[in-house]
Amino acid sequence: MGRTRLYRNGTLEAEGFPVADVSEHIKEPSAVVWFDMCSPTEEDLLSISEELGLHRLAVEDALQSRQRPKLDVYESHMFLSVYSARFETGSGRLDVHHAAAFITGNALVTVRNSEDFSIEEVVKRWDEQPGLARHGVAFLVHGLLDYVVDSHFEAVEAMDEQVEDLEESVFGDRPVSREDQRRTFELRKSLVTLRRTVMPMREAVNTLIRRNGKIGDVEEMAPYFQDVYDQVLRATEWTDSLRDLVSNIRETHLTMQSNRMNLIMKRVTSWAAIIAVPTMITGFYGQNIPFPGFGHPMGFWISSVLIVVASVTLYRVFRARDWL
């Protein structure tokens, strides 16, 4: 049903062994067991909860996909809830995938809702640092957190590139397109989602650092967990700054649109005023009553001169005031 690994005295001894053997291995003081479950049922979790002494509330939380990132500490184990993140550059959407972990003194059980949470990346991090395996479960938990926080960092880095593209389009010659508006909206929504994922990780990792004595060597693994905590802080600060920047870009878009509209209205109004003068003059001379120059060529020339002089005067006045 799931993947398994057995470490003994800091050395990987076996993997892929039957799940039924897990209960035997965890009884050995020198053994550390990892057991992964993907989309398990409640019965599947209850079957191992008796072996590991898992709290029922922790089992219920593992089955829920909308848990916030957290670390709950129980008498016999800890429960960790995390989310990996992946940013879709094309659509501007952020995909988050939940995983839970039961942490005991010599066992780590990971529970994933789907294959989208890449457990292969977690295993890769364990294999890259085999020398840390001697620290027991703390080594396994660090690899899990390292993958999760790295996914947050990759997502916020990809978002930062998108924000830079939006910044360049703000003061461009062309008006903001519907596509740019959609990207801005999707990016802001993704940043809000990422912030909800990253922010609680600070408390979870900080609690894990303080309770590190429950899962392994405090002195040796503390710097590694501290490094993960620093990465969480950086991702949080970066996410907050990008969210503020996207809000400013959106406000600037609206301001630029308003300014362009005001400029267009100003030009249209100015040209309407210029056109209104000839219309007034021709309307005056179109009266069906005698007027100065009526019936004489001089009347035509007087009206023409008035139209030209008034139009040129208005044009120069509007041009001087930057209305045209």
UniProtKB/TrEMBL annotation:
Keywords of this entry: Cell membrane, Membrane, Transmembrane, Transmembrane helix, Transport
Coiled coil stretches, renumbered: none
TM helices/strands, residue ranges: 268-286, 298-318
Domain of life assignment: Bacteria
InterPro entries tied to this protein: CorA_cytoplasmic_dom (IPR045861), CorA_TM1_TM2 (IPR045863), MgTranspt_CorA/ZnTranspt_ZntB (IPR002523)
Topology versus the membrane: Multi-pass membrane protein
UniProt KW Cell membrane keyword: yes
Localization per record: Cell membrane
Location, primary (coarse class): membrane
CDD domains per record: TmCorA-like (cd12822)
Entry's family note: Belongs to the CorA metal ion transporter (MIT) (TC 1.A.35) family.
Protein name listed in UniProt: Magnesium transporter CorA
